[in-house]
Amino acid sequence: MSQRSFLPRSEAVREARQFGSDAFVDWGFDLAEGVLILSELAANAVVHGRSPFSVILKRTDHHVLIEVSDKSPEWPVLRPASDDEGGRGLAIVTRVARSWGCLPDLHGGKTVWAEVAVR
Questions:
Q1: 57 vs 18, 48, 77, 86, 113, CA distance in Å?
Q2: In CATH, what number does 2-117 get?
Q3: CA 81/CA 61 separation, integer angstroms
Q4: What pLDDT, on the 0 to 100 scale, is given for residue 109?
Q5: What pairs with residue 57 in β-bridges?
Q6: In angstroms, rounded to a whole number, what is the distance separating the alpha carbons of residues 108 and 1?
Q7: Are 113 and 103 in contact (CB under 8 A)?
Q8: Which residues 6+ apart lie within 8 Å of 64 measured at CB?
Q9: How large is the average pLDDT for residues 80-106?
Q10: pLDDT in tens, 27-53
Q11: Which residues pair with 112 in a beta bridge?
Q12: Which of 14, 58, 68, 109 shows a CA-CA span of 20 to 30 A to 101?
């Protein structure tokens, strides 16, 4: 398991992506899909969560579980992508992840999770 916390700023998306990429390489996994999913979930935490967020990565022989937790009570909403830059994050996660979902935490925030198959 790997875990790290981030501040809600635009640089945190790049930092989270690098954190995930480094962990996947350390585990011997080629997980471009995992890096993409982590990037999208981190971006949602920054843009919509507007709070410090944490990333937990858990591995098994068959998949990696990506968890992004923030303090916002607002759950993610899968919506159609628009012509502008927004609205594509969860559509990408839905298409790439083996499965994904959202769970409430005890303090009013949430954890958005996604599973990625390993090769």
A1: 13, 21, 22, 26, 10
A2: 3.30.565.10
A3: 34
A4: 96
A5: 2, 66
A6: 24
A7: yes
A8: 24, 27, 29, 31, 34, 57, 58, 115, 116, 118
A9: 83
A10: 999 899 999 999 999 999 999 999 999
A11: 68, 102
A12: 14
Q: How do beta strands 99-104 and 53-59 pair?
A: unpaired
Indicate the residue type of 25. Answer: V
Over range 98-109, report the average pLDDT: 95
Q: Are 76 and 101 in contact (CB under 8 A)?
A: no
| Mean pLDDT for all residues in the chain | 92
Check: CB of residue 24 under 8 Å from CB of residue 34: yes
Question: pLDDT at residue 86 above 90?
Answer: no
The DSSP symbol for 71 reads S
Beta-carbon contacts of residue 84 (< 8 Å; ≥ 6 apart): none
Instruction: Compute the residue count for the chain.
Output: 119
